[in-house]
Design brief:
The protein has helices at residues 23-37, 54-66, 77-85, 135-150, 180-186, 191-206, 218-227, 235-247, 285-301, 303-310, 314-329, 333-353, 355-358, 364-377; strands spanning 3-6, 9-13, 17-18, 41-45, 51-52, 69-75, 93-96, 107-111, 115-119, 124-129, 158-164, 167-173, 178-179, 253-255, 264-267, 270-273, 280-282. The chain is of the alpha/beta class. The chain folds into 3 domains: 3-96, 2-Layer Sandwich (Transcription Regulator spoIIAA), CATH 3.30.750; 107-173, 2-Layer Sandwich (Phosphorylase Kinase, domain 1); 178-385, Aminoglycoside 3'-phosphotransferase, Chain: A, domain 2, CATH 3.90.1200. The strands form 5 sheets. The chain has a 5-stranded mixed beta sheet with strand order 1-2-4-6-7. Strands 8-9-10-12-11 form a 5-stranded antiparallel beta sheet. The protein is elongated.
């Protein structure tokens, strides 16, 4: 049998048919490969398998008893029915084969660090991930979406995982939906109505307790990104980033990770989140610094990039930001609002500084430019941000 042993995982491709005539040989070969590799994790790839009999099922049962961390992938609908009818889907993890789809001619709704979102038709959208995005990370994002939805946060739920041009994608049912950015641009007269809904959506996210056993902390994610900047930053600069991050007060509420108007969809007038790849739990300031990066820093430095990324012009970006800050921190008064605006924008520059770790697809030349700008505008006063978050 064809097999690959990589990262302590043994992947074995199953034959076209497994029945009484070849089950014994298949069993011997599988267990011989396990013994040779001394693995504790086995994946059976059923991409070519068209039928499996009770004799073949007994081989898989023996495998599951011998190697607890075993699963079967790329299972056809017909073979899946066999596993389902015999109760094997309750014994071992069985994954169906992914259907192939095309995005040729499809409208691009948005692009992000993890992939591109397409409109497939009036009913469905597809988030097509980058080619190097592992399936486990995609399944993790889907699970995050479900957890947020169950917790009461309006979130689009994926109903299918597909493949397209060698990449994985998540399919969402969003009937006649459009991005919040596009809706704002097309309906400027309804700005106040939709912004109110957007603020309510963000507040729901930031006041909902997350299951900390299912999500990572925002601080852990940001500390990881800071460490990944070792190629560009000095040890002292990275230490400053860690000090800022770790000084933020702890919270157990949801953090989206990349809130901007193209990561929110409008369906029948209601707003729902998409793109929860970086969802964590922590202080809402981490989402505000992301919004500052998009709505203030990017829109101010590169209006065309902001328009491409979120679908609204720089003037509307700044208006949104000011209205959101006023709605959240209005009790501080004008002077307090000004200070809060300055603080969150400065923290937005921290996200700007680690952008090369957040989005690894950024071209090398641009990464170097980002660091040069950060050394001029962020690091000279960065130590002032340590312990600065008080709300």
């Amino acid at each position: 049998m064809e097999n690959v042993y990589n990262n302590d995982i043994l992947t074995i491709k199953l034959p076209q048919i497994i029945n009484s005539s070849n089950a014994s040989d298949a069993e011997k070969e599988i267990f011989s490969l396990i013994e040779e590799s001394d693995t504790k994790r086995v994946i059976l790839d059923a991409i070519d398998t068209e039928y499996i009999s009770s004799a073949g099922l007994r081989v898989i049962l023996k495998l599951k008893k011998a190697v607890a961390d075993s699963k079967i992938i790329n299972v056809s609908s017909e073979v899946y029915d066999i596993f389902n009818m015999t109760g094997f889907i309750d014994i071992i993890d069985v994954k169906k084969a992914f259907r192939e789809i095309s995005v040729e001619g499809c409208e691009i709704i948005g692009r992000g660090s993890h992939g591109t979102v397409y409109r497939i038709n009036g009913d469905t959208i597809l988030k097509l991930y980058s080619k190097d995005e592992p399936l486990a990370e995609i399944e993790r994002e889907i699970e995050y979406s479900r957890n947020a939805f169950v917790a009461g946060i309006p979130t689009a739920i994926s109903f299918d995982v597909v493949k397209c041009n060698g990449s994985y994608g998540s399919v969402f049912e969003l009937i006649n939906a459009d991005t919040f950015g596009n809706v704002l641009a097309a309906n400027p007269d309804k700005y106040d109505e939709y912004l109110k809904k957007y603020i309510e959506l963000v507040n729901t996210l930031h006041t909902t307790e997350a299951d900390t056993n299912r999500l990572s902390s925002t601080k852990s994610l940001y500390n990881k990104w800071a460490d990944e900047m070792a190629e560009f930053l000095t040890a002292d600069e990275i230490n400053i980033l860690h000090e800022i991050i770790n000084s933020v007060p702890d919270r157990n509420t949801f953090v989206h990770g990349d809130i901007h108007p193209k990561n929110v969809m409008v369906q029948d007038g209601e707003l729902v989140f998409i793109d929860l790849a970086d969802m964590t739990y922590g202080h809402p300031v981490f989402d505000y610094m992301s919004m500052a990066l998009t709505l203030v820093i990017t829109a101010g430095r590169n209006p065309e990039r902001a328009l491409e990324k979120i679908g609204i012009d720089s003037a509307t970006c700044l208006r949104m930001w000011n209205d959101m800050i006023k709605a959240r921190f209005g009790s501080l008064g004008d002077a307090g609002l000004q200070k809060m605006n300055e603080l969150l924008t400065a923290l937005g520059m921290m996200k700007f500084t680690i952008a090369s770790a957040v989005d690894k697809a950024i071209p090398q030349q641009l990464k170097e430019t980002l660091i040069s700008v950060s050394r001029q505008t962020f690091f000279p006063n960065a130590k002032n941000l340590i312990g600065a978050v008080k709300f």
